[in-house]
Amino acid sequence: MAEEDIARNFFHQTLDKLREEKDKEREVEQKKKDKMTSAYASLHQNIIENRGVLNAIQDVKMYEKIQKDNEREERRKHLLKLDKDPNEQFLMEERFEKYKDRKKAFEKKTEEGKEMILERIIREEKNRKKQERKNSNLHWMDKYDSQAMKRNASRKLPRVKLHKRSHTSAKKYIKESEREKERGRDSAGEVDKNSGSSGEEILPEPEYRGLWEIYSKQKPPKQEPKLISDESMQKAMEKLRTGIVRKQVAAGREFKGLPFRSQPDTVLFKDFEINKPYLKKVQLTNVSYTVNYCKFVEVTDNLKDFCFVEFDPPGSLSAGLTCWFQIKFIPKIDIDIEGAVCFMTQSGPFEIPVSCCMKKCIVSLEKERIDFGRICKGEKARKCIELKNEGIIPTDFTIGDIIQTETTEEIQLEEVEQSQVQLDENQGSGLEIMKTELIETSYIKCLKSSGCLEGYSETVVEFEFTPHEAGVEVRDFTIRFSHKGIEPVICTVCAESVDLPIFLEKESLDMRICTVGYFYQDSIVIQNQATNSMNISNDIPNSLNNIIQILPKNALVQGQNKLNIQLQFTPNLELWNEMYNLYFDSENGEFQVKFNFLVKGQTLPLPFTLYATVTRAEIIFDKTQINFGTCHMQECITSTVQLTNNSLLPQKIGFISMPDFITISPEDGFITLVPKEECTLRITFTPDKIRFNEFSLTCKTQYDRDYIIHCTGKGVQSGLQLSHTKISFRSTIIDDFSFAKIHISNPRIARLSSAKVRGVAPVNTNRIFQFEVPDSANIRITPEAGKLEPGDELKICIEFSPIIPIQDIIDLARENTKEEVTSLEGGTNSKVSILEKKGSNVMLGKNSKLNMDVPVKEKIKEDSPAWCEAREKLIQMFEDKLETFRIPCYVSIATQSPTVLPDETLHLEVTLPSTKPKLKVNCLQGKCVDFGECLIGMKIVQKLELENISNQEITFKVNPLNVNGPFEVINTPRPIPPGKLFNLVVNFVPETNELCHEECIIYYDEYNRISFFLTAKGVEPEIDLLDSQDNLMGDELALGDVVLNESLEYIFAISNKTTIAIDYWCELSDLDTGNNFTGLPAFNITQFHGVVEANSKKDITIIFTPDRPSLHFAEKIKIRINKKQNYFTFKITGRGHEMNLYPHHDYIHPKDIMVDPYPKRYHDIIKVIIYRKIDDDVTTAHDVLKITNIKHRTTGHKPNGDFLLEMIEPIPTRKAFLLEPMKSVVEAGTTFEVNITFDPKQLEAGEIRQLAYYKLTLKGDVVKQYCLLLRGVDATHMLV
């Protein structure tokens, strides 16, 4: 019973658990259903909300498609302009895109194939390793004991080089022994596992513990596995080891090292030849403690094909006994071979190295550095080095010239200091070492520059050092060999030369610049480091005795002392021409004299050089006489004198004892002229009296030389006076202008009688004046002539405006045109500058004859491209100029026949500085920037490109434009670096239909400016909408009837009558009556955005595609022109039908509507009410039922249709209605009319209205039935 209760409890627990699981599953399913329901609801809501988004997305896609079509069309036009085939270009691009897609697909397929192959290789590698692990337990590969082999491999073999193979074999032996131990453990573990698996039975465990636990406690007894002990394993290994290697122990000492020693230690085959056999006999000696044996094993792998060993095993050898073996070497390749012969003994293995060397040339240098030590100047020393060839092949060697070492000067100085220290240690001298410098000129030579170095021989190379100056020399010699495999050897030779005991502190003396006729003196220091005194003298040429003198000529310099000798230099003008070719350097004009100081008892003299630059102290005047001519009392006349300092020294000059009416500038005539300087002096004559002046000006220099200038001038008095006789304009650029104002007056002069003064014109009378402007001056004087009464004053305006001469522009333009024609014909014609060809001044006045009458052979219009190009080129070629003009003003007495009074002629001196502009406007067309035409209310943005053509940064500002005008500068001016550009942005927004014109002025450098005009024209747009018949469109456009899911296209046009292209945007209003079931609009526009060219029209297509039946499809279209809102607005309507046939009636009375007695039989009801009016004279009433057949837009449909009228129920008054015809065929695209006649006479007495029902059957694409309800009313018998 207890067991049944336990089982029952477990059963109930299982059932409860199953119920819980089912409840959880139901909850999960219910949650999934709720989640899906909410997802569907949210999706439905999102679709409803996102209909507008879908419309926008469709518009965007349509816009992108149109953009692509426009871009394709533009590109097609561009290719056609380039004389290319656009269809071919587009086809090539499509093929290239397909090629790239195929290439990507192929690369992807290749990558997938590589991955599959890699996975297969990895899988096969895993299977191979798994198979190797299974097979490794089947072989017993332990042959040697690992400990013994490790001990033998760790022994260091002196004087014998082990080959790599011996180490690898030892390592292999150790690894095999370790594998054997691991294999033993693994086998023991496998035995344990197998025993455990065979002795215990595994039963499945139930879900709940029950009676199974009672039976599971009765387990069979376990059997412990038998393991192999470590002792048995060690014994097995000992048995194996005793047969191979044993330790040697003698007298309690264990032998360690190589058991046998070879004689020779290394088998060497030297300078072998290919295919020639070589035999070597090697002796082996037992050097172990006891009896041992020797067994040949093998030779290393790299010797197996070339070396063969003949060894007869001698058996057991006692200690100290020897045996022999022969090794035969047959070379087959010409390379060095290294290997070993392997032997096995009772105490372990050993190897004998084998080296095979081919024929070589091995060159070595005894030492790479030679140090000569310290040697005095003028002495000679030699040192040798040995060059050895340790190979059999001879070679030639050459010792090259000097090669500068790659080390820096600091490293060379360190080497010098080290060599000096070594010399001091070796020589033991207590003298103080002076700091030396590197010698620039080489005094080290190699006495043997080439030779032949035989095999196994040596040669001696000798170097010689003969210094002539003090210092340190380090030189590298390169020894090159003719053998290709030998690299060059560098031998460094260093030496130090010591100065002579007597020397000059300075070996040259520079007297700088010396003037002819003056005396110069300096000292020369001679120092004696020796302990005894020495006599010195010189060898100056006799021809220089009057110029150079050394005092004293012969001198005695005491030991360890110095002596100062005086050198006197006196340049003489008389001997200048004789010495010039001998002692003067023609390149730099220096005077050079080289001589020696001779020391008695010393072979090497002391060289000395004297340098001096000799010059003359003279100044050259370009004129020595000046005639100022006639000058008025209130005026002044200036004359210039050019001075040139031909001396190499600066000179101070000054004018002394000058008259009061003479002024000299600059600095009042006291100036300093630097060497070779040219200076211009301005001498101004201002008369103070009416007389003739004759005087002289004296110029004195610092060298007490006088220069005299003779001058003459006459002072006179004029009746008219100028407020200013000199005018200096500011620097003015081309096409700019500058103004100046002066006054001319006729003053009253207090004089008793003008007739009493003889030779003077009468005063206090009317006078006439006239300015005569030179043709080459770009100035205009206003007024040029006039009349002044006594006491009157008149203002004179002077305008300066530099320009480019028109004739020069025309000539250059014509020349450029000729060059273009010549280049087309295949010829070449070099351009010649107009300025160089004419040799005339570029500046020319506005009123000159050249500007008025230009002899033009070929007419070149002003502001044409050729004109502008030539003008810009001449402006770039223009050079800054400073011109001065003396403009005469002729004066005469106002009479009937006036004559010029020469003594009263006035002069106006005008200084005209002109320069080319630093700032240039690149987009100018002459003097204008044309914005073109622009629609009123629109905006044109023009970038004026300003270029800095100077070498300095320019800061500019723009003169403010008219605030109420159409032009506006929208960006801020910024500094322009040299050679850079700046875009000045100007907007043009017209408000009226007229031509706009405004001046723009740009100022820079305070006074300079550029002025040009901005021109544009505002245009009033003239836009019309035209229907398909090119008639003006109204406010509504009816597209007609369309079968569902078919499309109707209607084309209207936007006509642009203006001379400017316009942009248009078409938008559809969001009306509920214009959408389909899908939420998308039923009306679509293909070209909703585009450009209408000037004087042309643009076709726009409207597509009507209904998907639901409705008679009230409608949308509003808004057309914006150039982003103006609601420029055009009209309504489009359409009707959608399920089939191609449909009936319709024009009039339905709203008062009489009857309920359909047959609502379920027919699709629709057509109600027709016919009235007969009271005042009608006719006896019957008529109406029309229309049946229309819509023409399908697609193929595959039945073109024609037919209809049939049948009376539903016959009534007594059926003769009151008459329908003709009752059936017929309706052709596609036509409307058929059914005439309905109502005759009230057929009514019964007392009836005023009658009903009739007809069945209308339409057969088109589908068959559809209608109920036609006819109601006739006789209005003559009813009260209205």
Automatic annotation (TrEMBL):
Any one GO CC term of this protein is: cilium
Q: Which UniProt keywords apply?
A: Cell projection, Cilium, Cytoplasm, Flagellum
Which segments show compositional bias classed as Basic residues? 152-172
Name all CFAP74 fourth Ig-like domain ranges. Answer: 621-715
Spell out the protein name for this chain: Cilia- and flagella-associated protein 74
In what ranges is there compositional bias, type Basic and acidic residues? Answer: 173-193
Q: Which domain of life is it from?
A: Eukaryota
Q: Where is the CFAP74 third Ig-like domain?
A: 502-615
Q: What is the lineage of its organism?
A: Eukaryota, Metazoa, Porifera, Hexactinellida, Hexasterophora
Tell me the compartments it is located in.
Answer: Cell projection, Cilium; Cytoplasm
Domain HYDIN/VesB/CFA65-like Ig-like, residue spans:
927-1009
Q: Which InterPro entries would you find in this protein's record?
A: HYDIN_VesB_CFA65-like_Ig, Ig-CFAP74_2nd, Ig-CFAP74_3rd, Ig-CFAP74_4th, Ig-like_fold
Chain intervals for the UniProt region annotation (Disordered): 123-203
Record domain CFAP74 second Ig-like: where: 364-426
